[in-house]
């Protein structure tokens, strides 16, 4: 059993709900006509073969971040596990701030995480704005049922009359208009005869409800704005709280899963769908909303507003800066879809808000990369090692396994020569206690090569060691009979100076130095870690010259590194540090 199987998956209460619903055959009569639509449309369809339908409903107004990954893994994961379908739905009912660029990047990142929305010939990629006509008809149906009215109070009046948590609201003076009057005004709103902000359509529920969301919420507003999908067809737009339940219902969603801040909206969600079912526009079973705690992750910010600020104020290089918690950034950093899926399983789904330690995410990445990444050798802070008794110009094959746990991945050849690069920290003139690497007169094994004995060293004027000298013991080569004749405690890695790829490596660290950026009175920008990125010039084994963009490796003893997908050229990759082998932040 591997490590990851032995750690039990965290609980996910939504699975309990689905198990119960399926046991009760709740969706046995639910129909699906092959595309979204209301009762009349779905009635012509067949019994839905998807056991459940979930959806991931991003608003295309920004790039996806690690929080979204939790929601994606949850919704698509449930659909996968329960023989269902998860729709990708762009919740694009708000014309401002939405764009095709975001649509494209979201689509790409959901695919990248390993999920799809296709079911045979059905794509199940939807745009909420395609439902504007149905939403409009739904609003008219509410008006005709006496469940909605056009309100001409100013925004201020509406706010004051909404009441407070302890005080009931006051009815609008426009609340008792006739159906005819409401219908006429609402059509004038639609037809561009009313000014932006002059009136709204409100649901007529209960101004004294203890739940403020039920105090006649606004459901349509006049807004002359160009929409990325519908252009200038509409000058009225539905409010999110009105649009979202309808989107779910048209798509025959069974479990509409959202974050906790929508809990107080659930009564309106149910109220609205029941009214539309009464009006014959929708059929039972209706979708149900379930709320879970959003992901809060230490050392990052997961709010679109803050991410936009980081990008626009150039604290980072762009949306895919490898330090950002956007999925585009995480991918470029070398984080993997497998790592994210493991993370989602491991943190589970609950209703209790909490902070997840960033190290849990990093451990998931380490665990998956440990399994998948081939090993290579890199000297990150090089000094020269000269084997004085080794023949000039000679080069000798040494064999290094590509993966210690996967012998089937074979070995590769690396060249040993007289002059090598070794890690500066692998030599100590005056060794500290427990230092088992290279010291004057000491023995150490050159990994996959010979045992060498240190015979001297050179320093520059500033006192820094520049060259270490040694002699090799000819019978001790790894993999030969003599290899075990001399036992040494230390084992260091090296790269031949004449078979090296000199390369730029970006050493990334956390973008924030505080676990909870911006906590209390602090500005989150003041918590930025000033040392979150630096670039070094390293000496890598020659084979790494051929790494393709996004190829991932473990550099032995250092961590996981990925060839940058943007800046790597053919035969000239640059690498990003994804994560160290061990957590350096643990106190
Ligand atoms: P932000 O708060 O960063 O602006 P958002 O919630 O407005 O994000 P949406 O595009 O509306 O962004 O999100 C799409 C889906 O992702 C929603 O269902 C939302 O609940 C979910 N989601 C967003 N952030 C998180 C998070 N931190 N943890 C879990 N799910 C999240
Ligand atoms: Mg949102």
Top CATH class of the largest domain? Mainly Beta
Rg (C-alpha, Å): 31 Å
Total of DSSP H or I helical runs spanning 4+ residues: 14
- Indicate the structural class: alpha/beta
How many structural domains in the coordinates? 4
CATH-defined architecture of the largest domain: Beta Barrel
Strand content: 15-25%
CATH topology of the largest domain: Ribosomal Protein L25, Chain P
Give the biggest beta sheet: 7 strands, mixed
- Backbone shape: elongated
The share of residues in helices is 25-40%
Strand order of the largest sheet: 14-27-28-29-25-26-15
Q: Using DSSP, what is the number of strands? A: 29
Low-confidence stretches: 1-6
Give the termini separation: 30 Å
- Provide mean pLDDT, rounded: 95
């Amino acid at each position: 059993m591997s490590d990851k199987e032995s750690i039990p998956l965290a609980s996910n209460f939504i699975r309990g709900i689905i198990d119960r619903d399926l046991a009760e055959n709740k969706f046995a009569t639910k129909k699906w006509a092959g595309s979204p639509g209301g009762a009349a449309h779905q009635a012509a369809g067949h019994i839905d073969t998807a056991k459940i339908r979930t959806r991931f409903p991003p608003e295309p107004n920004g790039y996806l971040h690690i929080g979204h990954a939790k929601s994606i893994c949850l919704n698509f994961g449930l659909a996968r596990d329960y023989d269902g379908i998860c729709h990708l739905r762009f919740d694009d009912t708000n014309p401002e701030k939405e764009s095709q660029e975001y649509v494209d990047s979201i689509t790409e990142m959901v695919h990248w995480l390993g999920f799809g929305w296709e079911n045979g010939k059905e794509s199940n990629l939807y745009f909420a704005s395609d439902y504007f006509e149905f939403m409009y008809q739904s609003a008219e149906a509410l008006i005709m049922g006496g469940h909605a009215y056009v309100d001409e109070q100013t925004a201020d009046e509406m706010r004051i009359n909404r009441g407070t948590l302890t005080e009931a609201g006051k009815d609008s003076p426009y609340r008792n208009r006739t159906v005819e009057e409401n219908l006429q005004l609402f059509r004038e709103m639609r037809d561009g005869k009313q000014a932006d902000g002059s009136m709204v359509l409100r649901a007529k529920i209960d101004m004294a409800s203890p739940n403020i969301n039920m105090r006649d919420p606004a459901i349509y507003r006049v807004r002359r704005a160009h929409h990325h999908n519908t252009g200038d067809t509409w000058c009225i737009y539905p409010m999110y709280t009105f649009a979202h339940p309808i989107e779910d219902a048209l798509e025959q969603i069974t479990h509409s899963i959202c974050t906790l801040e929508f809990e107080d909206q659930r009564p309106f969600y149910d109220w609205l769908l029941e009214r539309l079912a009464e009006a014959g526009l929708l059929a039972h079973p209706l979708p149900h909303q379930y709320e879970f705690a959003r992901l809060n992750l230490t050392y990052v910010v997961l709010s679109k507003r803050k991410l936009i600020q980081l990008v626009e104020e150039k604290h980072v290089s762009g949306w895919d800066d490898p330090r950002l918690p956007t999925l585009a950034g995480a991918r470029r950093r070398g984080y993997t879809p497998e790592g994210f899926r493991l993370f989602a399983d491991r943190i589970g789904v609950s209703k209790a808000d909490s902070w997840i330690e960033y190290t849990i995410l990093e451990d998931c990445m380490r665990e998956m990369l440990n399994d998948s990444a081939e090993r290579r050798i890199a000297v990150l802070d090089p000094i020269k090692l000269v084997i004085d008794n080794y023949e000039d110009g000679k080069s000798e094959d040494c064999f290094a396994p590509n993966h210690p746990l996967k012998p089937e991945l074979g070995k590769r050849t690396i060249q040993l020569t007289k002059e090598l690069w070794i890690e500066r920290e692998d030599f100590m003139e005056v060794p500290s206690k427990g230092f088992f690497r290279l010291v004057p007169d000491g023995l150490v094994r050159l990994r996959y090569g010979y045992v060498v004995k240190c015979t001297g060293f050179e320093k520059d004027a500033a006192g820094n060691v520049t060259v270490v000298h040694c002699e090799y013991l000819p019978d001790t080569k790894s993999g030969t009979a003599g290899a075990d004749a001399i036992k040494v405690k230390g084992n260091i890695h090296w790269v031949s100076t004449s078979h090296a790829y000199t390369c730029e490596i970006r050493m990334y660290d956390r973008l924030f130095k505080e676990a909870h950026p911006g906590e209390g009175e602090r500005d989150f920008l003041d918590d930025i870690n000033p040392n979150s990125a630096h670039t070094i010039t390293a000496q890598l084994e020659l084979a790494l010259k051929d790494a393709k963009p996004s190829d991932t490796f473990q550099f032995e003893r250092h961590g996981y590194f990925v060839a940058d997908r943007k800046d790597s050229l053919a035969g000239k990759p640059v690498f990003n540090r994804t994560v160290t082998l061990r957590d350096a932040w643990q106190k």
